[in-house]
Give the backbone structure.
Amino acid sequence: MHAARKLGRFLAPYWHWAVLAPLLMALEVSMDLAQPWLLQRIIDQGIARSDMNLVISTGLLMASVAVIGLVGGIGCGIFTVLAGQNFGADLRGTLFRKVQALSFGNLDRLETGGLITRLTNDVTQVQEAVMMLLRVMVRVPLLLIGSLIMATITSPQLALVFVVLIPIVLAALIWIINRTFPMFSEVQHRLDQLNTVLQENLAGIRVVKAFARSDHELERFGRANDHLMEQNILAVRTSAVTMPFMMLTLNAGIVAVIWFGGLQVTVGGLQVGQLIAFINYLAQTLMSLMMISMLVMRFARAEASAERIQEVLDSRPDLAFQTQPADLVALRGRIVFDHVTFGYAANGHDPVLKDVSFVAEPGQTIALLGATGAGKSSLVNLIPRFYDVTAGCVTIDGVDVRAIDETMLRQTVGAALQESILFSGTIRDNIRYGRPDASDAEVIAAAKMAQAHEFTSNFPDGYETIVGQRGVNLSGGQKQRLAIARVLLAQPTVLILDDSTSAVDIETEARIQAALASLPEQPTQVVVAQRISTVLRADRILVLDDGRVVAEGTHSELLESSPIYREIYSSQMDTATAVVPHE
């Protein structure tokens, strides 16, 4: 329960509710414990002596005790809900903030499906366990100990039955804990797998439909669903033996007490009321043990969830930003890659970039060209420090990006990445995402540069048009242009365009390039492209192959010196009629 104890700190702010709930539950339990004793009094002193006044007065007292117990139970329930729900809300909030603080490498390892499970199902499991802790875990020990004490006071001889029953029950509980905990851990792992399949399917439903792969996806989901079901059945089936075993123990105990107690009643060693009261206390004791078995199953699952939550909370971002970053007023945008090697594996094996070196002067446009998998996107991800280099360094204006304040670095470097991600809200909200305080005029100006103003104005609601989930009501080219407008509005010193016009026609792309060229303060641009037309007028083109820069120069220079570039060029352009731009 180590992980669960660590999460207990989230309950600390609500300690007053967490204290009141057990106190009120203690009141309810004490009232429950008084009932068999009062019943014994009615039978042995009232009915046996035909004292109706005692029967009536004790009956009224029992009713009063029941009402007091009811008040205690209701109050405990109210304060338990207050503490538990606030605990869950704080835990979810902290977990979400932690996810936002993690680096790309952490998120790659934890995976989206697993994080969704931890933020939802796992938090719910732990929250329900906390609420049970405040209510049932207080009730059960108090009822167990109180019933044992009252049973012993009622009949010390019959109380010897507990010496036999309790060790049997405890042995069963220990067996259940050892067996079910790893099973419920596997249940949560398989739930991760199911959520991953579900998330991938919903995100790529258009691809599924386009390739008529619904049957394949149904099979994938069915396998994950069946695996989860099988593990759940295994875990629940193992724990299901607990309840029948506890009932058998309870009934065996009651039979034994009635047998030996009945013998004592016949010889005058025990009164009928005492026997009935003892049976009630015995039932309360064993019912408490049965409730413990149920709690063990619940807490086994909650502990598995708590460990998964704690794994995220204990995660340290792969990127550690300086506590005292370099004292910089502004960055001009001179980018230097100095013998950079990078690999996604933490051990540095199988690098995707190998000994890359180049310089981009302020205001220059550097284009990256190469086959798929050459390392172009990996390279640009190092500039805003989404990942850290394995060897070498990346500097902006002579300062290692690892020494620059995170906020300043991300404000300096703006990126329109390969996948154009839009959020629910209006078009205006999406363009303003990086600068929420931007004026309407600035939003429109950015949209015009990105060639997004015309199609936006054609919508009935214009910039107030609601963007569907993940931009479902927009075309790929429209989403890309809005993503470019979003990054242009942020006015970065370094602008990364990672194949961000792939869904845009050549004419529109040319207008975007012309708009960027007309900016009064030219940002340093790093452009990843698949089309030659995108890179023709770049100040310098880097040709990447297998993670290395194999050629570098202007369009004209590369046509003469680089076979790879000529091959790419000839595959896309009619070399007989192509016009080489003037340098």
The chain is about 60% helix and 10% strand. The longest helix spans residues 52-101.
